[in-house]
User: Fold these one by one.
Assistant:
Number 1:
Amino acid sequence: MSILVTGASGFIGSRLALEHKNVVVSASRNVQANSDFFIEDINRHTDWQTPLSGIKSVIHLAGTAHNSSDCHRKLLECDYEGTLKLMRDCGKYGVGRFVYISTVNVYNNFYSRHPFGVKTQLSPTTVKAEFCVSIENNLKEISNELGIELVIVRSPLVYGPNAPGNFRLLTKLVKKAPLLPFALVKNRRDFISVQNLVDLLIVCASHKNAAGHVFLASDNETVSTREFIDAVAYGQGKKVLQVPIPIGFMRFFGRLAGKTRMLDQLLDDLEVDSSNISEILNWTPPYTMKEAMAMLRTEVKYK
């Protein structure tokens, strides 16, 4: 089976292309990346005929970066219009399955005290998550129209060597700070390692039972922020002392510093129900969180 992976120079895509190079054909907008195809721009005008030649499934990872300037325009042109154009070209050139990577941020976790599941009502609270909901809905319509199998994977924060965004900031914090204020934090959050996500995506691209389903990815290890930070420290070979700072105190000073959203991500719950993955795909994460975190200090850089 040949699988086209877009965004192959990114954090997840580069690992996917490297670990499964026997079945993966890679496409990237990074001219310096060692990809099979260079795609200058992903938008409603992109011609996917050559990259899609002989492809059975597509894993679509390309998208707008978290810190991108002019974010709304890029979300519209690349994430929304570009994704829908790619799926229509899949129908045009005989690709049978499309795997779309979405986010658990399509749910509103502010008032939630229960795990999110595939039947939980969507209520996005960020612009990017709103676009993801719109993309999911339109992909379902195209799937029905063109007869292409669609698989949607909603992912929480993905961690691992060279991870961008909040995890990179967290690893730097753990390296530099001997004391951290999360001893009293007993929230419940789900994460997934890049190793486990890559394994799941390959299964979603190839398993006969995956078609038509939405999956919420996770390590199947719900942990608190305190436990997650301890795991990061273990992975880096560091020791961090967690001190008991009242949560209300942290939220107050977080608001004063303009870091409310960051504090919410550290202190609130975000738990997902991934049970349908094992039921439908007979898949369980191949790595525990401890095993995956240990790779933070043992793996060479992919980029």
Note: The first strand starts at residue 3 and ends at 6.
Number 2:
Amino acid sequence: GPGAAAAAKRLPDLALRPLDEAAAAAVRITAELRVADEGQEGMAAFFDGRRPAWAPEAGG
């Protein structure tokens, strides 16, 4: 979703950090996104076989 896309844009900055620090930050970011409302909706939609509420309509 939108929040995950914004977080993904920050991930290249982790390449400048030491590996252990970058890995820990990536795990933290992933965990935070997963438990957020947007992440919960995305996972529920995936398992239900539907588009998440935040996804644009197909073809639009």
Note: DSSP finds three helices and no strands in the chain.
Number 3:
Amino acid sequence: MITTQPNKPSSIKTGSLVALFVLLGVGLQLIMPNAILPFAIVPDAIAQEVQPKAAGEKPKVKFSDDSFRRAALDGNMQIVKLALDSGSDPDAKDAQGHTAMHYAAFNGHTKVVEFLLGKGVDVNVVDGEGKTPLIHASSGPFNETVVFLLDHKAKIDHADATEGFTALMMAAAEGQLEVVETLLKRGADPTTVDVDGETAEIFAANNGHSKVVAMIQKFDVDQANSSWQADAKLVVSLSEKRSEFNYDESKVPAYTLPDPLVDSEGKPITKPEQWYETRRDEVVELFRENVFGRRPETDYSVSFETTSEVPDALGGIATGRSMKAIVKIDNRTYEFPFTVFVPNNSDAKAPAIVLINNRKFISLEDALGEEDPFWPVKEIVQSGCATASFFTSDVDPDDKDGYDKGIRAFFSDRQMPADDAWRSLSAWGWAASRVLDYVQTLDAVDASHVAVVGHSRGGKTALWAAVEDPRFAIAYSNNSGCGGAALSRRAYGETVGRITSAFPHWFVPRFGQFAGRESELPIDQHELIALVAPRGVYVTSSDEDLWADPKGEYESLKRAAPVFTLLGESSITEPTMPSLNGQRIVGKTGYHIREGGHGLTSQDWALFLNFAKPILMPSAE
């Protein structure tokens, strides 16, 4: 039952109609606004400065900031571009703190929003009341703009500073049914309240939007009762295309998982000291022997060289560096590059995030160009973190015949690896630790709060990196599947047999011997996650990526709970998965499954950063 409250005014106040003179070339055009303006524009601020030129030349035009903002409001891309070309500041604010981005978003001009983002405007820039472009866009029928902003890391539950209004509240108050649906599906919290304790549902009810009320109520019920299930049509389609693999949940074999809290002699582990002193080492050795291999014990040294630096990167908020790690054994050296960004002018030491990039090398120059959602450096830095990234194949070639070319060849002096020697996943994890070595040298970074992140094969690597190196405070495994977060015994999607035949250089040969007999493995992947405890573990799945077995990934995280409990940390134990695009966080464990396919997206990063903040920046909580 909703208690009816007096209607609240719209989130955006209207201003007066004004005529806007815009000088184009040498002609003068009068543009009359076709709608009530959402923001007051001061008429005498609209005039342009025109400097005469010699005969035959066009006069130089300088657009006023109000002209620029009005063009953004009207969606006049030509004027927006001309204004910026003439020197207008894309971040210029009016008296109420509104920028061109707010104007464009309010009227649903997605192309202008996209153009301004390309000019470096912050997608979450706030006006004088603390409202973001997403909040303004959500008040109108502009679902395309809302989706675009969300895809580019707009903060979905940001509340303004004066009334506590969110994008969902605005959409509900204005009866924007499609926008409300999008926001709910993308993870907006319908239980958030404004400063008067009112929710989006109450906003909708007070303004007579019964369909919005019904949608929010249905969403609440669905959220309470739903658990993600694989799409039936997708299951049928994949089963037909790849009939040799199982995508049918009913065909998952019965299995019994090994108990991480029973030691090799069958004795129960009941105290933390038993875990730390004996059992953890036993399980680590089982993974080395059966999955990842043993790292060399050869003595080596590592040093670092800065090859280039940009002290005012990302609009001045960070220092960017191109780095080189130089590994030395006797008189031989091996080098691999990595890229680093460290926040400028931080009041406290920043935590850090190390990305194991299995896609490509992102140089400093690349990172300063168009932001790559796979490594959104600006978003990470704006969250208060330093960040570094390296490319896996620069460390050890992602090639089953590449054993004689990478860091493993360097350590073995190009000899064929022994059966129990480290393979590529372990080598990439070793490199993440070397990047962490560099991070520890930075005065501006809190090296005790560093997360390691990876996608797919990088996600497998991130988990193992955190097992081998306890300095990592969080391991984030994204779509890691078989050999990563997914339970091998489920034999769902990619199997041990398939992954070890396609990528034999990732694992020791012994892992492949369990193809078709996964139940005989002495370990399973829930124990890999348990080895990271009591530190943070975050796992992500995608609803179209059944190859990675989302249920197996969630089940693995859940089945690691006894170890977290033993070590004094709460963790995820809920038997059913969260709903699509929902996030579940319990203690130092977190999980989400998003719509879409195999990839590391802006949505993934936003949810991970939400999880990571209280662990990496506990003093900020």
Note: The two ends are 34 Å apart (CA to CA).
